[in-house]
């Protein structure tokens, strides 16, 4: 099976983390998100992959090349201007000669793709859409289906209490090549707003595949933190995380940890981390390569990227810190804050709850 990965977006909801990189390359437990996605697809025997690019296209291709080091075959298709989800797949049409998967480029999931493909074939569907339940369907577009699973209609952000279902489009599809005939080449087109409603109006067999398997959209800072908590806590499976052993979750073996420091797992450490005297790391938390946590500082459920220096008696709680930042002595970063790359937070500073600091800034 082939897959098309839609990773051309700018990742605006994740800014300032995506000011200097693309969303597909942000680290998830110290591995690029894109690597997790490739590993997931390969584990389901999906190893022939077309990658649609637009924003900062060279970042992914320069790291992953033809995919051979990851056991897959990668081809890249460039959009000069954003074409939308269906338009991007149409742009990849020359690579598609049979049924194929499509993935939105911001999803981590444990959905069983083999079972979804079997469902698609049994119903002789032209398009199959994975659905996942959410607590608040009013924040999403919901998908109404008949008793046989055939899609009846799409309802965008229904008023509270009026949604006919709590199942939303999970951004994972199986498509037959014929459905792309209704998409014009080079013209922006969205699956949920244009192509799928058009298919329904023509009576084309569009089916829904509901699942309760793990699923999360990492497109916001809150969800970006949550998926890493879930991986560390074992709520989401990833073979890329198995190299972090149980012993590392309590006391790092890839870091220099002072005997008086406290590490309350689960914590994932990158290479060459240093934890000072009396420091406390409370998991779930992630520290990237080359991080330094000085004496007496507290890291509580934070996601910290590479080469970050944290001064003495500082406190970072439930926040994300980008690459190459410096957090001064006795500084405090409150919950929900997001700090971009190369930021200097001076001694004694305080970031209030849910603050965003853009790259190359001094606070």
Provide structural commentary:
The chain has 363 residues and is of the alpha/beta class. It has two domains: 2-232, Spore Coat Polysaccharide Biosynthesis Protein SpsA, Chain A (Alpha-Beta Complex), CATH 3.90.550.10; 245-357, Hexapeptide repeat proteins (UDP N-Acetylglucosamine Acyltransferase, domain 1), CATH 2.160.10. 18% of the residues lie in helices and 30% in strands. It is built from seven helices and 31 strands. The protein has helices at residues 33-43, 58-64, 84-91, 113-122, 191-201, 221-232, 246-250, and strands at residues 2-6, 27-28, 31-32, 48-53, 73-78, 100-104, 107-109, 127-133, 141-145, 151-156, 167-175, 206-210, 215-217, 255-257, 262-264, 267-269, 273-275, 280-282, 285-287, 292-293, 298-300, 303-304, 309-310, 315-317, 320-321, 326-327, 332-333, 338-339, 344-345, 350-351, 356-357. The strands form seven sheets. The protein has a seven-stranded mixed beta sheet, sandwiched between helices. The longest helix is centred in the middle third of the chain and has 12 residues, at 221-232. The radius of gyration is 22 Å and the shape is elongated. The protein starts with a strand and ends in a 6-residue tail after the last strand. The relative contact order is 0.12. Mean pLDDT is 88; it is low at 243-252.
């Amino acid at each position: 099976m082939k897959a098309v990965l839609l990773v051309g977006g700018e990742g605006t909801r994740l800014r300032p983390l995506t000011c200097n990189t693309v969303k597909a390359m942000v680290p998830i437990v110290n591995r690029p998100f894109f690597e997790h996605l490739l590993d997931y697809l390969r584990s389901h025997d999906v190893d022939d992959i077309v990658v649609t690019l637009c924003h900062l296209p060279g970042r992914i291709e320069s790291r992953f090349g033809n995919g051979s080091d990851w056991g897959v075959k990668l081809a890249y298709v460039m959009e000069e201007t954003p074409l939308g989800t269906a338009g991007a797949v149409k742009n990849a049409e020359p690579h598609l000669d049979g049924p194929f998967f499509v993935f939105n480029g911001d999803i981590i999931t444990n959905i069983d793709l083999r079972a979804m493909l079997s469902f698609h074939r049994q119903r002789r569907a032209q398009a199959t859409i994975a659905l996942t339940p959410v607590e608040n369907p009013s924040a999403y577009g919901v998908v109404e289906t008949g008793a046989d699973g055939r899609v009846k209609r799409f309802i965008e952000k229904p008023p509270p209490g009026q949604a006919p279902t709590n199942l939303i489009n999970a951004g994972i599809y199986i498509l037959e090549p014929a459905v792309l005939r209704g998409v014009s080449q080079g013209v922006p087109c969205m699956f949920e707003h244009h192509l799928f409603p058009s298919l329904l109006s023509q009576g084309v067999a569009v089916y829904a595949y509901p699942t309760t398997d793990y699923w999360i959209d990492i497109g916001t800072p809150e969800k970006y933190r949550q998926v890493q908590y879930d991986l560390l806590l074992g709520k989401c499976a990833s073979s890329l995380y198995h190299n972090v052993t149980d012993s590392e979750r309590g006391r790092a073996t890839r870091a220099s940890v002072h005997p008086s420091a406290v590490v309350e797992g689960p914590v994932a450490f990158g290479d060459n981390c240093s934890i000072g005297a009396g420091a406390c790391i409370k998991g779930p938390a992630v520290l990237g390569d080359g991080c330094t946590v000085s004496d007496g500082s507290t890291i509580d459920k934070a996601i910290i990227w590479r080469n970050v220096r944290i001064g003495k008696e500082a406190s970072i709680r439930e926040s994300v810190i980008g690459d190459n930042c410096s957090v001064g002595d006795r500084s405090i970063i409150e919950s929900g804050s997001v700090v971009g790359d190369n930021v200097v937070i001076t001694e004694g500073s305080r970031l209030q709850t849910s603050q965003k600091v853009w790259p190359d800034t001094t606070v």
